[in-house]
């Protein structure tokens, strides 16, 4: 039972990548060369600890599709996160209209305070918003676990 649970957890990053890339393609967005915002990178919300975080699997999975994953996490030291993820990392919120995919990976307080409409504003028109943690209302995201 424990091993089965571990296999499910270990495959969750690939599952999230599969779901968001399918949603992007259904909307006519190319995955190759796309920019995706990954919101949150820590093991749990409102905590700076990157150890044991599975968000890195999502970032690496997007990279396998030749997409750029910009990681935004206000709880983490940017240098530590850059060393861990080797991707573009931001400790402040991005500007509007940049991304074609947004993955809400960790439900930090700062992200909850933004709400769905302000999170969607980071994306281009019709961008895909995927809520991993179920932080938003079901109708406010395009996909969720």
From the alpha carbons, calculate the radius of gyration and give it in angstroms. 14 Å
> Separation of termini?
21 Å
Instruction: Give the integer mean of the pLDDT values.
Output: 89
What's the CATH C level? Alpha Beta
| CATH architectural group | 3-Layer(aba) Sandwich
Sheet with the most strands, sense and barrel status: 6 strands, parallel
Q: What is the count of helical runs?
A: 4
Trace the largest sheet across and list its strands: 3-2-1-4-5-6
Which structural class fits the helix and strand makeup?
alpha/beta
Shape: globular
Provide the CATH topology. Answer: Rossmann fold
- How many structurally independent domains? 1
**Beta strands, count:** 6
Order of helices and strands: HEHEHEEHEE
Beta-strand percentage?
15-25%
Low-confidence stretches: none
